[in-house]
Amino acid sequence: MERVITGDLVSHVLLFSTHLLKAVNFAAELDCFLSLSLIARQNNYVRPVLTANSLLDIQNGRHVLQEMTVDTFIPNDTKILDNGNWNQMVELAFDADLNSNNQYHHRPQLFREEHLHKADVALIVFLSHIGSFVPADAATVGLTDRIFCAMGSKLMTAEQSTFMIDLHQVGMMLSFVLENICMHASSRSLCLLDEFGEGTLTEDGIGLLGGTINHFVASDDSPKVLVCTHLTEMFNESCLPKFEKIRFYTMSVLRPDNNCRDIEDIVFLYRLVPGHALLSYGLHCARLAGVPEDVIRRAACILDAIGNNKHVERMCNERILAQDQLYKDAVDKMLAFDVLKGDLDLFFQEIFPS
């Protein structure tokens, strides 16, 4: 009886399935629009201007999620003009792994600010194309056909290394650009490269990144490309010749003088400015992250020795000196031991006391 009733109900509902599906789709679309509108109003988003020109002009762009988790978020501008120019975001203000991002807490959390900036741009472009307001003071976005990302993401189920995943993503990016050059449409694409070239030998990474950038620059109708890297060797003109299409940016740092290394005197401003980074500030970020002071001192000694082409001296402290003395005493006893007349058990007890 229950099966019969259920079957009759299903048959009756199926008669109105077309109308029901339309109602469900309408409700889902309305829910999406209401959600976008609510978030835009709560977080002071603005209406973006979509244009047929191939340009990107974002004033005080913000990250849709990151700004909700910090007390103070410092926005940044992005401008790629409609004259074929493309900006290369070579942001080397901080260490490659740890950067205090957009906040002034008594104990700053650590994020990667220059990497978040590319995510800001991609999200703003995406939101503009789905009809949403965007987190910025103003935004003019050219119509975009593809957003390519090589951001070093690693899926838990992936059977490949992060480096191999990056290679596949960049390979798809370059293949698409080649196809679109033939169709004269590649300038509509937005390409993001985050630390491409990491995960292998430095020389190989420099070659891969330099070759990729040169490929984009050589294109007659190149896409808009944002690159973030800590491979400072790219500044060498033999690796990356000067091109009008390339613009270098870095995260600004305030310090009393160029030789200042005291963390107390260095202020990270998190503002994207033209230019190259002078230092990586890796040790400063390590101190902010709570790395023990003795580790930082040892790292500073090693960096100083390598930078001056000196021999890295063996680390020496009281514990190591005590161990060295124990080893020396053991060797002296072994050399003085009479194999024929000596008591072997007593000898080992003296060397390895319980």
Name a few traits of the molecule:
alpha/beta; 4-stranded mixed β-sheet; extended; 11 strands; about 350 residues
Return Rg in Å.
30 Å
β-strand percent reads: 5-15%
Largest sheet: 4 strands, mixed
Low-confidence stretches: 84-112, 181-185
Class from helix and strand fractions = alpha/beta
Spatial strand sequence of the major β-sheet:
1-6-2-3
Helicity, in percent? 40-55%
Query: Ends: how far apart?
Result: 83 Å
Order of helices and strands: HHEEEEEHEEHEHEEEHHHH
- Shape summary: extended
Counting H and I runs of at least 4 residues, what is the number of helices?
9
Structural write-up:
With 354 residues, this protein is α/β, with parallel strands linked by helices. Helix content is 41%, strand content 15%. It has helices at 2-14, 17-42, 113-129, 162-183, 202-218, 282-288, 293-307, 318-336, 344-351, and strands at residues 49-51, 56-61, 76-80, 99-100, 110-111, 138-142, 146-150, 189-194, 224-228, 249-254, 267-274. The protein is extended, with a radius of gyration of 30 Å.
Produce a short descriptive summary.
With 354 residues, the protein is an alpha/beta fold. 41% of the residues lie in helices and 15% in strands.
